[in-house]
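Late entry, written up from scratch paper. The run itself happened at the end of the previous shift, but nothing got recorded in the book at the time, so transcribing now.
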Amino acid sequence: MTTQAHILIIEDDPALCIMLRGILTMQDFIVSEAQSRSAGLEKLRADPGITVVILDLGLPPDMHNITEGIATLKAIQEAILPVKVIVLTGQDQDAAALEAIREGAFDFIAKPAKADTILHAVRRALLFLQKERELNQQGITRIAINAQIGDGLKGVRTDAEERLVRQILKETGFNVNQSAKRLGVKRENIYYFLKKFGIERDA
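Output as recorded:
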C-alpha cells in the first residue's frame, strides 16, 4: 500500500520541506510540495492521486498562528477530498491539536518530529484510507460530522444528511441516477437535496 503512494507536503519552511521529502522519498513515496493554502488546494484538486497531506498549521501570511492551516484543513473537508490530513505544527500544541481534530485531521504531530513518527503516521493514514475504500466497495460510506449536543438531534441529522448527499454525489461524479440508487431514494429526492443544501455541480 505504501509503495508509490502520493504525499503532499503543505509547508512554507524550505529546510523542513527538504527533510520531509527526504524521509518520504527514501520509502518510495511520491512527494509534492506547496507553500501556502491556495497552492496546496490547487495541487489537491489537480491531482486525485494524492492520498495523504502533511499540513503545517503555521502558513503564510500568518506563520505564527494556526488560522491559515485550519482554514486549509476546513477547505479540504468541505470539498470532501479523499485524503487523510496529518497536521504538523510547532504552535500551541494543546489548542492546535483540539482545533485540528475538530476540523477533521486524521493525526497530529508536534515539531520537531522524528522520521519514525512521521512515517508511522503516514502508514497509518494509508491503512485507514485503504480500509475505507474497501468499505466503500461494499456500499458503506463513512462520513464525519461535528455535533454540538446542545443543538439537539435535528441539527445533527441535517448535518449528517447534507454530508452524506454531498459525498455520494462526489463519488458518483454528480450522477443523479446513481446517487439516488445508492441512497435508496427517488431522483426527485436528489433534486430536493440539491436545492435544500444549495449544492451545485462544481461543489
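The mean pLDDT is 85.
(Scratch paper discarded after transcription.)
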